């Protein structure tokens, strides 16, 4: 958004998309996650919003609903169509004017800009103000961002879009930090988990400092309960690519099943693909991220 590094990203869903969600961590900022619980009746999702701005950023969902309503998209409840727009936010209020955060106009604009092209990655959308490696404070943190990845196996495709705003570092495929907390002089990476185990970390971490949020999607046909299980399996990708994960990361992953292939897939196989995509999306986010002020 103009004036500060923050923004939002929207995934628009094909008709009939089934949604699920799993939220882990102690500091979530979410909307419509109760509706996605398997025991509740509504199963379809029309869009998913990822946003910066902490809890204030949930306002952007109103703009997504307004755009969808204008397209006559929503759950038919008789006198109106109500768009189902689950959302999750991350904390990016550290730098600049914290009064500037995603609002309804931002959500509406994100819908207008949405396309079927591969999503932009790095310092854009919900990842614009994201940071990683905050174990030693924001002054030594690195740049986070938003990333995507996809895999295809047989007839089925799974993809992930993840906004990375973790307390921990981001690790490569061999477990080495590629983004995160820097040394006091600003050069090189500390390896936060190793430093923490050596007694060098903070004695107290502030709640709400960080959250990694994202969406995994497949063209398999799944029930609402299966979509929820897919979201749970996708969370394994976080532990592969982020270390440490803490109780103050409000990590939330949504799962979407479009059913485009026309038949169900093996949930275990889809879960393996989803976890791999989440880990890949996290790494892609920080590999192309850059400081918006230096852009």
Report a brief summary of the structure.
The chain is built from six helices and 16 strands. The chain has helices at 60-70, 104-113, 192-197, 224-234, 236-241, 267-288, and strands at 8-12, 18-23, 30-31, 47-51, 75-76, 81-82, 87-89, 131-132, 142-143, 145-153, 156-164, 169-171, 177-179, 213-218, 242-243, 252-257.
List the topology elements.
Layout: E1 8-12, E2 18-23, E3 30-31, E4 47-51, H1 60-70, E5 75-76, E6 81-82, E7 87-89, H2 104-113, E8 131-132, E9 142-143, E10 145-153, E11 156-164, E12 169-171, E13 177-179, H3 192-197, E14 213-218, H4 224-234, H5 236-241, E15 242-243, E16 252-257, H6 267-288
Parallel strand pairs: 4-7, 14-16
Antiparallel strand pairs: 1-4, 2-16, 3-7, 5-6, 8-9, 10-11, 11-14, 12-13, 12-15
Helix pairs in contact: 1-2, 4-6
